[in-house]
Design goal:
- By secondary structure, the chain is α/β, with parallel strands linked by helices.
- It has one domain: Flavodoxin domain (Rossmann fold, 3-Layer(aba) Sandwich).
- The chain is built from six helices and six strands, in the order E-H-E-H-H-E-H-E-H-E-E-H.
- Helix 1 packs across helix 6.
- The longest helix is centred in the last third of the chain and has 21 residues.
- It starts with a strand and ends in an 11-residue tail after the last helix.
- It binds flavin mononucleotide (FMN).
């Protein structure tokens, strides 16, 4: 079974360290047999969540896109920068919109698997923010793998080809992504629609 993995970052900043770690993780996931779809949260152009806006206009197109992408993938690879020990507003807002119900549609997070990554220029690698993301996704019914990866001193961590310079983080990324794919293969959550032929 070829796991379908949705990859996204809580930062869309040009030069984002989390995007760079996510890129490296996507390379690993494809090498380990996954089909990977990247989604750019900034490109979804989501307004700040507002219940009055939702009541008046329904879900914005970007929220429907994110819900559909979640529902058509077995798992989520998520790079989450740490802002003041927590989660970025870009990521929290996107998750809040995507969690809103749609008549006749299942919750797109429930029963799927997620694996968390973080990168920071600091010494802790964004590790303090990951329990918050874990709890948030668990609240939405996701299974979050025990393995996760926080990359410290990330501004110096990448080689020119986008890969990780050091052997230890390279191996950790392979293990972490491998756990995501193994769990997706074991869980086989049903997809909302048949995936396109690869
Ligand atoms: C508002 C704000 C708060 C931050 N708080 C933390 C923090 O708590 N821990 C940390 O390691 N880095 C923190 N940083 C630094 C980020 O880790 C750094 O800007 C990082 O590059 C952001 O991720 P990105 O490169 O993927 O955009 C903070 C940055 C901002 C803008």
């Amino acid at each position: 079974m070829q796991p379908r993995i949705l990859a996204l970052s809580g930062s869309s900043r040009a030069g984002s360290l989390n995007l760079r770690l996510l890129d490296a993780a996507c390379v690993v996931a494809r090498a380990q047999g996954a089909t990977v779809t990247r989604i750019d949260l900034r490109a979804l152009a989501l307004p700040l969540y507002d219940g009055d806006l939702e009541a008046a206009q329904g879900l914005p197109a970007g929220a429907l896109t994110l819900k559909r992408e979640l529902a058509t993938h077995h798992g989520l690879l998520l790079a989450s920068p740490e802002y003041n020990g927590l989660i970025t507003p870009l990521l929290k807002n996107a998750i809040d919109w995507a969690s809103r119900p749609q008549p006749g549609q299942a919750q797109p997070f429930a029963g799927r698997v997620a694996t968390l990554l973080a990168a920071s220029p600091g010494a802790l690698g964004g590790l303090r923010g990951l329990p918050v993301v874990r709890q948030l996704l668990c609240n939405l019914g996701m299974l979050v793998t025990p393995g996760q990866m926080a990359l410290p001193l990330a501004a110096q961590a990448f080689a020119d080809d986008g890969g990780l310079r050091e052997e230890n983080p390279r191996q950790m990324l392979e293990r972490t992504v491998g756990e995501l794919l193994a769990t997706a293969r074991a869980l086989r959550p049903p997809l909302a629609e048949a995936p396109p032929a690869d």
